[in-house]
Amino acid sequence: MFTSFSTALSALGALSTAIDVVGNNLANLNTPGFKSSAVSFHDLVTQSLGAGMGETQVGFGVGRPTTIRQFSQGAIQTSPGALDAAIQGDGFLVVRDRAGAMLFTRGGNLQVDKTGRLLTATSERVQGWNSSGNGTVDTNLPVGDIVVPVGSLKPPAATTAVSFDLNLNAAGTAGPPPTAFSTSIEVFDSLGSSHIVSVNFTRNATANQWDYSLSFPSADVTSPIAPVTGSITFDATGQLTDPAPAGPFPSIAITGLTNGAADLTIGWQLYNGATPRLTQFSQPSAVSANAQDGSPAAQLIRVGLDDGGKILAQYSDGQQIMVGQLAMASIRNPESMMAAGNNTFQLSARSALPAIGEAGTGGRGTIMGGAIEYSTVDIAREFTNLIVLQRGYQANTRVVTTVDELSQETINLKR
Fold it and tell me: Whole-structure pTM over 0.85, yes or no?
């Protein structure tokens, strides 16, 4: 009978721990990326009474409960934060604390400090790969702090190639006057100043042939640049045959720019791979698209997170450049990790080594930009657990009270 004291007291301690776990779950109801914990109870070894070899067994109560973190998927909702990230599937974002220790988190409230480092809401440094400057990242390198440009000015890029996707009217004649068509495109020099390159087409007397003239404005150079001239030929189906896809293609060399910029050599790309950009059909002469590879200097407008964990910088010229890539870690037994505070986890002695790589590879989940994963706490389930645990606690206090009364009755037998 007197073992009931320790049995009931073990239950009171275990139930107190379970109530603490429920309280922690409810406290983190609105914590982004929080994973709720469940309590697992187990009984203690039993005592056999009498000589029946186990016919009568009395247990010694309940052991210290274990808590199990449940890494189920939380609801994902869009958020106004340009750098917010939500993980859909398995995996964790990789971060480092102030001491440099590697931690893991599902909380995606990200921000940038004054030096451009990408941080969590509690100032852990987000790990990943930075761009090498050409808009690409090498994910084969070790991960490090992600640094995004802050208030930077993108340098200009001089134009080296132009292209025109256009049709020249097959009904054009050599005249007089000859059928003509002209178009132009804006190009940029090494200082980011803009200039206009024009191309003029004139139908000549040879069947399916047009003369062209590629010119640069004389006002932009110290000495006039002679136009680049030549002819292009189409076959009976309106497809460009000369120049051939192997080239050579026309180009214009520009020297002596009045603003002091470096000399330019701009090539005219007549093919997209092996597909001609110029055609000759019985339709009005018109340009459907044009392109050039230069850009002016541009101011950084904003930095945002794209799906897949790509960090994009948008500039005032409308160009978006990839400046970083978030890393993700896959851990085979995430429930073995220990909570380290600030919505982060650290490896324990029972944890498998993390496999770090890009989102969406190696069994890792995907990253959704502009979204947040919400807590997995179910308020209805937690309140139900709270009521059940409260009743269990009350029942075991009655056991203590009853055993105490029986003890008093037993002592009174001697009087």
Answer: no
